[in-house]
Amino acid sequence: MADTKKRQGFAALAAAGNGEDFSVIDAIGGIRGVVESMLPGFVFVVMFVITSDLKMTIIVSAVLAVLLVVVRLIQHQTVLGALAGLISIAICLIWAWNTHEARNYYMYGFLTNSIYIVVLAITLAIRVPGVGFLVEFIRSLPTEHFRAWLADWRGDRKLMRAYDIVTAMWIGVFALRLVVQVPLYLTNHVTWLGTTRLLMGLPFWALAIWVSYLLIADPMRHHPKFKSEDDEDEQAENGEGTGIDNGGAVEDDVNTAKATDEGQR
């Protein structure tokens, strides 16, 4: 079997209909991605608990975040995900620095989770589930005939239902974070807030990605377009083709930036 690039985030879900093996670890960026995502937030909590010095905590966390990107540059590895994480961490650190309150390090996460809830809820209301839209967009870019592309997957009742459920589940994940963490923010329990943020960040993201795969993989494989392409591939392998181009479902090589700031949210 040909070696393929490891898909991350929702790009991993986009390959669910291709019969590829799904790996949660790969989907969240591998072991290194997990460490890079959670380490700055972990260091922030530990440093603040030990020193109670907000400025020192911010400086150490900022230096660490920059070093993670520099190491990737030195090793000539992709830095897109690391840069995305660096930007989100920078926003958190600047917010805490300007307000002189450690708890405001986590305000950015509250805002992003709230925005996700609103956007996904709107997509459900207009019958274009956000997760389904994103997955299908990654799987096959609608460069033309947008309405036909939209109707293709929305017209599949089982697939559409799976996308509805998955989108609602992601809304639940984001909402649960706010329900648990906002009271800790309001009561200024920084240690507990930081701990729950880490536990409900990347681990929750990984669980949600895995459950999403379980829900959409089977309906996606049974989608008429996938089934017809599988039949063509099987005929080509058995020498039964009649000169028809065996393009099949071309694998999407566009890698989306992983959610490296999930460790902060």
User: How would you classify the quaternary structure?
Assistant: single chain
Strand content: under 5%
- DSSP, total strands: 0
Helix content range: 55-70%
Order of helices and strands: HHHHHHHHHHHH
Give the overall form. globular
Q: How widely separated are the two ends?
A: 37 Å
- Which class of secondary structure composition applies to the elements? mainly alpha
Q: Could you report the average pLDDT, rounded to the nearest whole number?
A: 81
* Model regions low in confidence, pLDDT < 50 over at least 5 residues: 232-237, 239-260
Number of helices: 12
Please compute the radius of gyration using only Cα atoms: 21 Å
Largest β-sheet summary: none
Model description:
This protein is mostly helical and 265 residues long. Helices cover 69% and strands 0% of the residues. α3 (30-51) runs antiparallel to α4 (54-74), α3 (30-51) packs parallel to α5 (80-99) and α6 (107-125) runs antiparallel to α9. The longest helix has 30 residues, at 157-186. The model is unreliable at 232-237 and 239-260 (pLDDT under 50).
